[in-house]
Design goal:
171 residues, 2 domains, 6 helices, 22% strand
Length: 171
């Protein structure tokens, strides 16, 4: 493994260690490419290798892949964090400070779907807080168009719907 490639992996681990929620592939990619640390293909290879050696965990959905650092990843980062320059660490911390709320909100409301055995679509809608689901429900709809509409609307209307459901159930 070449030295720059090791650094890319460490940057990913450091980024994931600085948030207490999952980051999507696109969120990690946006940061790495914006800073021009490496190119897209090298980044994807680094992510794949980190998954293979269980330093990060990935949860795939129809919409995106979500990444979290594992305890093994945190331990590994602890040994090799000194190989990341202070400037890169500062870039990561500043990026999270400037974008943390948006990064979190993007991952706090999740919706995806898959076709079931009855030629309908199961749409899974979730509201997350850190690593726990505050609400996790699955709806079955008849068409692909309906599934896409539910996903879009869930992302826009999840907070009032969540509040309504909780208030109704706590009466």
């Amino acid at each position: 493994m070449s030295e720059p490639f090791t650094l890319y992996k460490l940057i990913i681990l450091y980024l994931l260690s600085k948030v207490n929620f999952s980051l999507s592939n696109s969120q990690i990619t946006d940061f790495i490419l914006e800073k021009e640390y490496t190119d897209y293909l090298t980044l994807q290879q680094a992510l794949a290798e980190l998954i293979d050696v269980k330093l990060i965990h990935v949860e795939a959905s129809a919409k995106n892949s979500l990444y979290q650092i594992t305890s093994e990843g945190e331990e590994t980062l602890g040994y090799f964090e000194n190989r990341i320059s202070d400037q890169i660490k500062e870039d990561i911390v500043n990026y999270i400070k400037q974008n943390g709320y948006e990064l979190y909100n993007e991952r706090a409301v999740l919706a995806d779907f898959e076709k079931n055995g009855n030629n309908e679509y199961d749409v899974r809608c979730r509201v997350m807080e850190k690593k726990s689901a505050l609400l996790d429900m699955t709806l079955t709809v008849p068409t692909l168009e309906d599934a896409e509409t539910v996903c879009r609307n869930w992302e826009k209307q999840s907070q009032p719907l969540y509040s309504y459901i909780v208030n109704q159930l706590l009466r």
